[in-house]
Specification:
The structure holds 2 protein chains of 2 kinds. By secondary structure, chain A is mostly helical. Chain A has helices at about 10-15, 25-60, 70-85, 85-115, 120-145. The chains are: A mainly alpha, B mainly alpha.
């Protein structure tokens, strides 16, 4: 056995001694990079949630009975085709196609809009949001020191 | 007063001041805390039993968690102690999820590997000595000595009886003293 005997205080001192890591600067950079990424993702998620929430709220209020915007566009474009020269007609036809596609997309989305306005959709989405909040709260409580 | 020109010299600020700066939105103050305590935290997690890359991942997660919960730091103790508690909890969570046998009362569940050559073992090398303890003893003694947790707090965290924790720590201390007090074998000259 060695002449020097370690007691509890010496072992405590050994625990307090910290070795120096060669990659300490790299570790610091890694932590800060991870932190920035997490904050950026969180901000992105909040923004996305805001957009989705805004669209959802809008969907609860928008009512479109006998929608006729597409018809007006089409009739307007037909008039234009008759009254303008060839070059302008090509441009009008181009916008006509875009208009038709947009209107088709809008009409197809009306189907989903109808679903989004049903009570079952409201309660399902409300429950999901509530569950997300509850999980987030439970997780944050677990992390609390 | 820690000022260089109009820019604050963060290296001369105390942990408490750096935490206050962080709470004010200064990320560079947190970077200084990471620089200051990164090695300590990595060592603490390693000494509890985590392997190198896992330990670094957990240290990183602990820092990120600390940043998010910085407003919960009560300034009534050392920041590094608070940091170690976060890291300890994360490690224990992982242990409970993956290696439940470590926390059983069965002391024969783990048999440490015998050292190949006692002479090769470096006396006073705490990390090497910790490697020779049973995982649960290593965990208890590290939480007590490095994590500054009381016996009762360790019992609560590990969900073990207080008496069991005390016996783990006592046994670990006895072994550490034996290992660290052991005289290294002399290096023999070959004469070539």
């Amino acid at each position: 056995m060695s002449d020097m005997k370690l007691d509890e205080g010496d072992i405590r001192d050994l625990f307090a001694a910290t070795p120096v890591y060669e990659d300490a600067p790299a570790f610091e950079a890694r932590v800060m990079r991870g932190l920035r990424l997490k904050l950026w993702l969180r901000q992105g998620f909040v923004a996305l949630a805001g957009v989705v929430g805004g669209l959802y709220a809008l969907a609860q209020f928008v009512r479109v009975p006998n929608w006729s915007f597409g018809e007006k566009v089409l009739s307007g474009s037909r008039m234009a085709r008759v009254e303008t020269d060839q070059t302008f007609r090509a441009g009008v036809e181009f916008f006509d196609v875009i208009g038709k596609n947009a209107v088709n997309l809008f009409y197809s989305s009306l189907h989903y809009l109808g679903i989004m306005q049903t009570p079952i959709f409201f309660w399902v989405s409300f429950s999901l949001c509530f569950a997300c909040l509850a999980l987030y709260y439970a997780y944050s409580q677990e992390e609390t020191i | 007063m820690g000022q260089t020109g109009d820019k604050l010299d963060l290296t001369r600020q105390s942990d408490v001041d750096l935490v206050r700066l962080c709470l004010g939105g200064d990320k560079s103050a947190f970077a200084e805390l990471v620089r200051r305590h990164g090695s300590l935290l990595r060592t603490h997690i390693r000494r509890m039993g985590a392997q190198g890359p896992d330990a670094d991942d957990m240290a990183q997660e602990a820092f990120m968690s600390a940043y998010e919960h910085l407003s919960e730091f009560r300034f009534d103790g050392a920041f590094v102690g608070w940091l170690k508690r976060i890291a300890s909890r994360r490690y224990l969570k992982k242990v409970r999820a993956n290696q439940k046998y470590l926390l059983t009362d069965d002391m024969s569940a783990f048999e440490p590997e015998p050292a190949a050559n006692e002479g090769e073992f470096r006396a006073h090398n705490l990390d090497a000595a910790l490697n020779r303890l049973k995982p649960v003893e290593r965990l208890c003694v590290t939480l007590n000595f490095s994590g500054d947790l009381s016996h009762q707090e360790i019992a609560d965290e590990l969900k073990l009886p207080l008496g069991t924790v005390k016996s783990h720590i006592k046994r670990a201390m006895d072994q550490l003293k034996t290992i660290l007090n052991a005289k290294p074998a002399p290096v023999l000259e070959t004469g070539t």
